[in-house]
Amino acid sequence: MPDISNWLAFGLVALGMALTPGPNMVYLISRSICQGAAAGLVSLGGVALGFVVYMVCTALGITVLFLAVPYAYDALRIGGAIYLLYLAWQAVKPGARSPFHVRDLPQDSNPRLFVMGFLTSLFNPKIAVIYLSLLPQFISLEHGNVLAQSLTLGFTQIAVSLSVNALVAVTAGTIAGFFAGRPAWLVIQRWLMGTVLAGLAMRMAMEARR
Questions:
Q1: Number of domains making up the chain
Q2: Do 46 and 117 touch, CB atoms closer than 8 A?
Q3: pLDDT tens column, 128-141
Q4: Do the Cβ atoms of 127 and 135 come closer than 8 Å?
Q5: Which pLDDT tens digit goes with each residue over 151-180?
C-alpha cells in the first residue's frame, strides 16, 4: 500500500485531472447529448477498459523502472509538465472551445460505442500523462511493493475518473443547456480548466524525486 498521505494527495490530483475536460470527456458529453445518457454510459465502459490497460502496463513498467533506474522517470516528469502546459494553453487561447460546445455524432450501436470509448481512452495523451508522469511521483520505495502501490493508485484514479465522468454523462444535456444560455460561464470554465492544468504542470516540474 502507498503511504496514506501520498494516496490522498494522488486522489486529489486525479480528481483535478478528471474535472479538466479532455478527449474522453468531450466524447462522452457529445455522445450523451446526441444519443442519450445510456449511450454515454456504454461509451464510459470502453473508456474504463482503456484505463485498465494503461494501469496494468504502467504498473509493471514502473516496477521495473524503480528497481532498475530510479532516476529515469525524471524525463517523463518534465515531458508531462510540458504537455500539461500545452493543454492549459489550448484551453485559454483565443478561439478555444469548451467541451460543452458539442459535436454532432451519428447514431452508433452499443458495441461500437464501447469500442469507440475504449479507443478514445487508449489514445488519450492526458491519460498517458497521469500514468507515466504523475503516478510515479506518489510511490515511495520505503513503503514496500512498488507494483502493489502502482495498482492501488491506478484503481484510485479509475474510481475517481469513472465517478466524475458517469455524473457528466448523465447530466450532459442539463450542463450543456446551462452553458448555452450563459456564454460568460463558458469563458470562466475554460480559464478555470487552464489554471488547474498549469498548476499541475508547475507542481510536476518542481516536484523533487521521491
A1: 1
A2: yes
A3: 777 776 777 787 76
A4: no
A5: 888 899 999 999 998 988 888 767 666 665
